Each structure stands twice: as structure tokens, then as C-alpha cells.
Amino acid sequence: MNKAEFVERIAARTGDRAAAKEVVDVAIDEIQRAVVKGEKVSFAGFGVFEKRARAARMARNPRTGEAVKVKKTVVPAFRPGTGFKELVTGKRKAAKSATAKKAAPAKKATAKKAATKKTAAKKTTRAASTATRSTATSRVGAKKTAAKKTTAKKASTAKKAVRKTAAKPAAKKTAAKKTTKRGRS
Length: 185
Fold this sequence. Notes:
Elements: H1 3-14, H2 17-37, E1 41-43, E2 47-54, E3 57-60, E4 67-70, E5 73-80, H3 82-89, H4 108-184
Antiparallel strand pairs: 1-2, 2-5, 3-4
Helix pairs in contact: 1-2
GO molecular function: DNA binding; structural constituent of chromatin
Organism: Glycomyces algeriensis
Keywords: DNA condensation, DNA-binding
């Protein structure tokens, strides 16, 4: 998944693509700024983004086998949390998250109306997100198919050109041999 696909998934859950893109951009920017300053950014259950210092060391050039000095460096690092590790290994299943905000009902009648509105909103949101996903995937599929076709055309044209150039010298050689044989007789 790339950044655009990530934004699309968030937009499908929240319903606002522009806000989702802004949130993702701001979150990434803030994480980067904090790590550059040397702070640890920790999300419970997910992991920690941090800045790590690597000491100077001796390494080997794989081509020559010669020893090379490597200077000390500072690199960004991510350390996954136990909850994230358990999800990846399959020890724990991911919990389904609710997309609609929960509100405390004041009266029973208003609670029923709110519940029916929420379910209707969920259905329309799901239908809209499904429609946008299918449209987006069909566009992506069409682009990939078009790209494959153009790549295939270029490859076949290149092969034909190679065949033609390879065939021409061979034809000239055989024609030259025939003329020399006729001249000797």
C-alpha cells in the first residue's frame, strides 16, 4: 500500500478525502519533525519511531576484500509494539472499528431515530465506498492494461526490427555465394 491508497482507505471510513489527506500529511510531518529533534514518537500497541546513532566501525569492501572505515551515522528507526507484532504473527485478531461516532441518547425516541439514521448512513457510506473502490480499481486496471499493451507493442516492434536487421546480412551473404559459384563454372 502506498500513501495514496492509504489516504483512500481513510477517506472510505471517514467520508472526506481532503480531510483524510490533510491528516495523513500532518501526521507524517509531525513524526518526522519529532524524530529529527531526537524525540521518540510512541503509539501504544503500534510501535515507536526513534532516532538511532550508529557507531563508527570497520567494514569490508565486497569486491576487493579491503578493510574500510565507516563513519558514525544517525538513522531513523521503527520498533513495532507487542500488539502490532501479535497481529502480524496471527496470535491476535484485528478488532473491527466503528466508523460512526457514538452519541449519548437523551430520550428513547431520539435514540431510535439516531440509530436508524446511523444505519442508513452506514449503508450509503458503504455503497459509496464500494462504488468508488470499484471505479478506482477499474481505472487502475485500465491503466495497467494499457501500459502492458504499449509495452508489448514496443517489445514486438523491437523484436521485428532485430529480426529484419539479422535477416538482411544473411540474405546478402547467400546471394554473394550464389554469384561466386556461377562465375566459377
